[in-house]
Design a protein that fits this description.
There is one protein chain. It is built from 17 helices and 13 strands. With about 400 residues, it is of the alpha/beta class. Strands 3-2-1-4-5-6-7 form a seven-stranded parallel sheet, with helices on both faces. Strands 10-9-8-11-12-13 form a six-stranded parallel sheet, with helices on both faces. The longest helix is centred in the first third of the chain and has 19 residues. The two termini are about 20 Å apart. Bound molecules: uridine-diphosphate-N-acetylglucosamine.
Length: about 400
């Protein structure tokens, strides 16, 4: 058993992406599969959960992702409709390509939908970023994580707490591999190419003078349904951000869901454009540059909590919980929920030079995708019977 090309024996590795946070995780994995000796042939499937140029196409080019081999063009819908549509369209794709395994990343609806289809067809599934738990089942992502991890055959974790979570759920330890954080692979690869904040403002028709403040500037992202789908909650958060903006100008990269809700709830007047700049969703290199040079980041994103830890930039997370506790214990993250007092106090501390600087967590070293490719190779070839379900 010494094949020079992996698909001489087994089919290709089918790599699935659906939504924006998947793209930065899959880019280094595809590169590592290609540069593995011998190479592991891969097929890239985009479910089309995110489809806007801002949310999808632009990130593909920023990250050097190849054009998807297959685009399922599923688009938006309720959770049930979107999940069902991904499943319906993914099934014939699996039948047609007969992959050796399916690799899914993160916790979006596409992650869970493709896992369900693959395991029922006897195709093994590897889940990258397994075992994270917020223990908040109001989050759709938490449901996706729990289901995906129960079903996956190989589980790659980013931090040690994930192993304990999986153990608690009865998942056998020999399926679980702590190998680090692929998102940080992308960050380290692209850090040098990040676009300067002033350039990004100019490219968006905004005056970069906004950034010339003695305290610098802050970056904001908000998109969780719990923060943006309820008018009173969103109004209150925008009110607090308005208060922060009197001390520190804010650059807000607006998710389409948030933009639509600000308009729908009539909250546009809550935003003082001289202090709080609203931008459309930004490319990967633009976001990286904005975060790298920021005084602080205010967010409800999972990815930004990790990226700010890797960049050493203080992060205030506008949520009650996080599935990424290492960013609090070792990194730069602090949970502030939507509590006005907590937010203002933490911002004041950071502006006084008391922000968390943190340290880089174990194995967030830029080599995670290589470790995954190597493990996949061993798993699929050293014990093909274990990997093959049918
Ligand atoms: C999804 C993920 C979330 C992730 C987020 C990153 C799930 C359950 N949620 O949430 O974990 O953090 O992506 O952005 O999978 N829309 C557009 N253009 C697009 C995509 C979406 O306008 O390209 C709008 C649509 O109105 C859509 C809404 O955004 O209904 C929400 O999109 P959806 O894919 O359902 O979930 P996200 O909120 O983006």
């Amino acid at each position: 058993m010494n094949p020079t090309s992996a698909d001489a024996v087994l089919g290709p590795v089918m790599c699935v992406v659906g939504a924006r946070p998947n793209f930065m995780k899959m880019a280094p994995i595809l590169r590592a599969l290609a540069s593995h000796v011998p190479p592991l042939p891969a097929l890239l499937v985009h479910t089309g959960q995110h489809y806007d140029a801002d949310m999808s196409g632009r990130l593909f080019s920023d990250l050097g992702l190849p054009r998807p081999d297959i685009n399922l063009e599923v688009g938006s819908g309720s959770h049930a409709a979107q999940t069902a549509e991904v499943m319906r369209r993914f099934e014939p794709t699996l039948d047609a390509h007969r992959p050796s395994c399916v690799v899914v990343v993160g916790d979006v609806n596409s992650t869970m939908a493709c896992t369900l289809v693959a395991v029922k067809k006897g195709v093994p599934v590897a889940h990258v970023e397994a075992g994270l738990r917020s223990y908040d089942r109001h989050m759709p992502e938490e449901i996706n994580r729990v289901v995906t991890d129960q079903l996956a055959d190989r589980l790659y974790t980013t931090e040690r707490s994930a192993e304990a979570n999986l153990q608690r759920e009865g998942i056998p330890a020999d399926r679980v591999h702590f190998c680090g954080n692929v998102m940080i692979d992308s960050l380290l690869t692209n850090r040098e190419h990040a676009r300067g904040a002033a350039d990004t403002l100019r490219a968006n028709g905004a005056d970069p003078a906004l950034l010339d403040h003695p305290h610098g500037y802050g970056v904001v992202t908000l998109h969780r349904p719990s923060n943006v789908d309820d008018a009173a909650t969103l109004a209150s958060l925008l009110g607090v951000l308005g208060e922060v903006a009197t001390e520190l100008p804010l650059v807000f990269a607006l998710h389409p869901r948030t933009r639509a809700n600000i308009e729908r709830f009539g909250l546009t007047q809550k935003i003082d454009p001289a202090r709080m700049l609203m931008l459309p969703p930004q490319g990967y290199l633009e976001m990286l540059g904005l975060m790298r040079d920021a005084t602080l980041v205010l967010t409800d994103s999972g990815g930004l909590q990790e990226e700010t830890t890797a960049l050493g930039v203080p992060c205030l997370t506008l949520r009650q919980n996080t599935e990424r506790p290492i960013t609090i214990e070792q990194g730069t993250n602090t949970l502030v929920g939507s509590d006005r007092q907590a937010i203002l106090q933490c911002v004041a501390a950071i502006l006084n030079g008391q922000g968390k600087r943190g340290r880089t967590p174990e194995l967030w070293d830029g080599k995670t995708a290589e470790r995954i490719a190597h493990d996949l190779w061993q798993w699929l070839y050293a014990s093909p019977a274990a990997a093959r379900r049918s």
